Automatic annotation (TrEMBL):
Gene3D superfamilies: 1.10.8.60, 3.40.50.2300, Homeodomain-like, P-loop containing nucleotide triphosphate hydrolases. The keyword Transit peptide does not apply. This is Sigma-54-dependent Fis family transcriptional regulator. InterPro entries: AAA+_ATPase (IPR003593), AAA_lid_NorR (IPR058031), CheY-like_superfamily (IPR011006), Homeodomain-like_sf (IPR009057), HTH_Fis (IPR002197), P-loop_NTPase (IPR027417), Sig_transdc_resp-reg_receiver (IPR001789), Sigma_54_int (IPR002078). One of its GO terms (molecular function) is sequence-specific DNA binding. It comes from the Bacteria. Pfam families: AAA_lid_14 (PF25601), HTH_8 (PF02954), Response_reg (PF00072), Sigma54_activat (PF00158). Residues 133-360 form the Sigma-54 factor interaction domain. GO terms for biological process: phosphorelay signal transduction system; regulation of DNA-templated transcription. The modification 4-aspartylphosphate is found at D57. Keywords: ATP-binding, DNA-binding, Nucleotide-binding, Phosphoprotein, Transcription, Transcription regulation. Residues 8-123 form the Response regulatory domain.
């Protein structure tokens, strides 16, 4: 899959307060912002990287914004549109810059909303891609934030978590961000010990009874892409030795073959088990454990991140409405409360099934709790644990709805604010409060 880049904005501003607020605001507007405090640093960045737009103060310490612009033009660079910020006293300089080819200028103090519109009007904005969509909880946001970096640099990643929490989803997202190659998944627990070696490394024709053709193993199939080894803890010890060798040497030898075939891939291992304990019990090789444990992502169970429950419920309602061609159903407040209280031992998989079942079996436009739970289940639902009090519940609903609206409006703050019936400023403040950010860093190209 191709990278979908966010528009990159180069900000040149020495004033820390102005700089910080512009960075915050433009990141929320869906830009990837590089902030430079002086013109020399900005020029170096502009020579290295392509930007959709440059926002620069005219007055800067050392080289001015004006001189930076002229020097870059003299270098005959294909420059992105320059938008200058100027003090009231230096409008004449800004006008001169316009004559020399700058795109626009604003005079301090300026209205931030209008400023954003100006930047957009330069045609520099392209819609942000869909976010990773791993959830709203801090734990899942941290994972989502780490993935682009891991996609660029990590060759081996371990993902742990209970069954159904979304480990494979995270692995697929990592693969998507890395771009290119195939995603090949194998459940090590589901393949018999005798067949696992041939499944992983392939076999030559005639290697064993039934091997009528040469077969490329999953390592070869995933060459240039991602190999996802699910339930790595189930792998028999003799295979662990061979796996370790393949990871270390980055070559595989097919069963019945002799040739060492080089493979280059990203290896993502997953397990619901505690590998350290397995290692202590002698059921998992310690050297393999350390080899695959370099980068470890723990995906928490849904009951430890209740903020995600309604967020996912809404996503699944939307997904099934589109899939079944039926109207989008809503959740009654009592249904939301029941969904929040239920402990979801099967995690996201169970939640998804519950929503799908309700969408098929229940014809109501708005689902009550009985669409998901039997009366006796409802009666025995535990009270909300931990901090899920009314305030937290309402906060989670608000955050979930704002995020949902932003996604629907492709992260266009103005349109999302209009849809929510609040001002842009109010929306911006709420986004800051809930820690909702556009997927800005998610798809940036690697820095050179
Ligand atoms: N971020 C997500 N957005 C939408 N659906 C998701 C997401 N994460 C997981 N799911 C859904 O939840 C279910 C379980 O996800 P997944 O198979 O990735 O979990 P897992 O932890 O790998 O499970 P197992 O350990 O049983 O293999 C799947 O149906 C998947 O479609």
């Amino acid at each position: 899959m191709k990278y979908e880049h966010l528009p990159a904005l180069c900000l040149v501003e020495d004033d820390p307060i102005m700089g910080e607020s512009l960075v915050d605001r433009f990141r929320l507007e869906g830009y990837a912002v590089d902030w430079h405090r002086d013109a020399r640093a900005a020029m170096a960045a502009l020579r290295r990287r392509s930007y959709a737009v440059v926002v620069s103060d005219v007055r800067l310490p050392g080289l001015s914004g004006e001189d930076m612009f002229r020097q870059l033009k003299e270098e005959a660079q294909a420059l992105p549109p320059f938008l200058f910020i100027t003090g009231f006293g230096s409008i004449d300089r800004a006008v001169r810059l316009l004559k020399e080819g700058a795109a626009d200028y604003v005079t301090k103090p300026f209205d931030l909303d209008e400023f954003v519109d100006k930047v957009r009007a330069l045609g520099a904005f392209t819609a942000a891609p869909a976010p990773a969509g791993l959830g709203l909880s801090p734990a899942m946001r941290r994972i989502a934030e780490a993935l682009p970096r891991l996609a660029r640099h990590a060759s081996t990643v371990l993902i742990t978590g209970e069954s159904g929490v979304g480990k494979e989803w995270v692995a697929r997202e990592l693969h998507r961000l890395a771009g290119g190659g195939a995603f090949v998944a194998v459940n090590c627990g589901a393949v018999s010990e005798s067949l696992l070696e041939a499944e992983l490394f392939g076999h030559e024709r005639g290697a064993f009874t039934g091997a009528v053709r040469t077969h490329r193993g999953v390592f070869e199939q995933a060459h240039g892409g991602t190999l996802f080894l699910d339930e790595i803890g189930e792998m028999p010890l003799p295979m662990q030795v061979k796996l370790l060798r393949a990871i270390q040497e980055r070559v595989v030898v097919r069963v019945g073959g002799e040739r060492a075939i080089p493979v280059s891939l990203r290896l993502v291992c997953a397990t619901h088990q505690d590998l350290k304990t397995l290692t202590e019990q002698g059921r998992f090789r310690e050297d393999l454990y350390y080899r695959i444990h370099v980068i470890h992502l723990r995906v928490p169970p849904l009951r430890e991140r209740r903020e995600d429950i309604l967020w996912f419920a809404e996503r699944f309602l939307e997904e099934f409405a589109a899939q079944h061609g039926t109207p989008r159903r809503r959740l009654a407040p009592e249904a939301e409360r029941a969904l929040l209280c239920y402990p979801w031992p099967g995690n996201l998989r169970e939640l998804r099934h519950a929503i799908e079942r309700a969408c098929i079996l229940c014809s109501d436009e708005t689902f009550g709790p009985e669409a998901f739970f039997e009366p006796d289940q409802l009666a025995s639902l535990p009270p909300p644990t931990g901090a899920v009090n009314l305030a937290r519940y309402l906060e989670a609903c608000e955050a979930s709805y704002i995020l949902h609206t932003l996604q629907r409006q492709q992260w266009q703050i103005g349109r999302a604010a209009q849809a929510l019936g609040i001002s842009r400023k109010n929306l911006w403040e709420k986004m800051v409060r809930h820690g909702i950010k556009p997927p800005q860093e998610a798809n940036l190209p690697p820095r050179r």
